[in-house]
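Tokens for chain A. Residues wanted.
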């Protein structure tokens, strides 16, 4: 019988995040040697990684931080909520975020290719996924800059890490601007705007929406003389759904987000919103 105790099993589970039976089998194979058992767990996990390549990683976490006027946000995915709340997975999310900040990586490719403890961060993520026994991927990274940046993280379940994250950058750093930035970040988490302003919406998207509004109005038998006004009205409604500054403000729907920002003496210079799996 291998020479190890229940305390050894507990310690190894805490170090690796692996399941009870996997830890016991590894300790048996390693004859109680914890370091060797860790190698066994990693090797077996990596062998299983190819089998997991086609699986969907739709759970996970969002993490964000603001440093020196720059907000950085990352999303890391796994397969199940069981792993999403695992301390090893949450620790990995923090490692990825710290790496994104320290390297200044502008995109996902650069982040994953960056050097981490003698190898790439991408290799480290695969290795950690092997230990956790699931497909684990860094899905995306965002960076925004401004006079003030607010980072807002929202938990959709108290048992899970943050599932929604928003970075909101504004062009002023007054107390009013900071308050507005935070309030608009919270609004953005809930209402999921796609674009900052109407000018940011691709022209083909606007024209397609205009065409749909026109065809729908004609199918409804609307009078020709009112057609232009009806189409523009429906297009305005479309903008209110997808454009941040046109949306009715969550805390006071009688005002638009743009009006709230203007009253605070500021404007949004950039924003990003992540929701795990979306």
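Reply:
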């Amino acid at each position: 019988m291998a020479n190890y105790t229940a305390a050894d099993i507990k310690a190894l589970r805490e170090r690796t995040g692996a399941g009870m039976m996997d830890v016991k089998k590894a300790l048996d194979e390693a004859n109680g040697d914890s370091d060797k058992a860790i190698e066994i767990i990693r090797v077996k996990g990596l062998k299983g990684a190819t089998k997991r390549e086609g699986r969907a990683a739709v759970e996970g976490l969002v993490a964000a931080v603001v440093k020196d006027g720059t907000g950085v946000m990352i999303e890391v995915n796994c397969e199940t909520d069981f792993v999403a709340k695992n301390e090893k997975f949450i620790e990995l999310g923090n490692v990825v975020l710290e790496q994104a900040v320290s390297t200044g990586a502008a995109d996902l490719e650069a982040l994953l290719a960056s050097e981490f403890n003698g190898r790439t961060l991408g290799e480290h993520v695969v290795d950690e996924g092997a230990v956790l026994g699931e497909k684990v991927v860094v899905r995306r990274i965002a960076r925004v800059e401004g006079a003030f940046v607010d980072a807002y993280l929202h938990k959709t379940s108290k048992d899970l890490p943050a599932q929604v994250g928003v970075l909101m950058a504004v062009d002023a750093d007054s107390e009013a601007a900071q308050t507005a930035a935070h309030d608009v970040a919270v609004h953005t988490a809930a209402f999921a705007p796609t674009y900052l302003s109407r000018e940011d919406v691709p022209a083909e998207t606007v024209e397609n929406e205009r065409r749909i509004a026109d065809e729908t109005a004609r199918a409804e038998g609307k009078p020709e003389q009112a057609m232009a006004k009806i189409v523009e009205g429906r297009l305005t409604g479309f903008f209110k759904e997808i454009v941040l500054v046109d949306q009715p403000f969550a805390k006071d729907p009688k005002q638009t987000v743009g009006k709230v920002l203007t009253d605070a003496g500021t404007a949004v210079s950039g924003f990003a919103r992540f929701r795990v799996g979306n």
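The chain has two domains: 6-52, 59-195+258-275. The first helix runs from residue 6 to 16.
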